[in-house]
Design goal:
7 helices, elongated
């Protein structure tokens, strides 16, 4: 999956890399690389939200232990009008990377859209993050 140094891979390059990885088989290195390719396809600016969610779900099946996948799934679910689904994803991301301030902030933003107890939790969480 090589792109020119300093330039992100194009959609076509990523799809070619996926085809090559699929042809190689399912070793651990190939699975992690496949997960990264799906992730990079998902976060490209021209990727539709529903397609990005589907691609991130595929990335997660390849590499279920990478917190950035769960974080971005949460971000996209929230953006797509599913704050409860976003909370679920952010909590999964925090189990993988429990010190991620960024994930705590996004979790709080999603919680603010739920019922009153969750809104209070969001305020407390943001206060705790601000106080480090």
């Amino acid at each position: 999956m090589s792109a020119t140094v300093g330039r992100p891979a194009t959609r076509e390059q990523l799809q070619q890399a996926l085809a090559q990885l699929d042809a190689r088989g399912g070793g651990a290195a190939e699975r992690i690389a496949r997960g990264e390719a799906y992730f990079r396809l998902a976060v490209q600016a021209d990727t539709d939200i529903d397609e990005a969610i589907r691609l991130l779900e595929q990335a997660e099946t390849c590499d279920p232990y990478h917190p950035k996948i769960a974080f971005h799934l949460g971000r996209l679910r929230h953006q797509n009008g599913d704050p409860q689904g976003a909370v679920f994803e952010y909590r999964r991301a925090l189990r993988l990377a429990p010190r991620s301030h960024r994930t705590f902030v996004h979790l709080a933003l999603a919680l603010e859209e739920l019922s009153e107890p969750e809104k209070k939790l969001a305020v407390d969480m943001l206060s705790a993050v601000a106080g480090d």
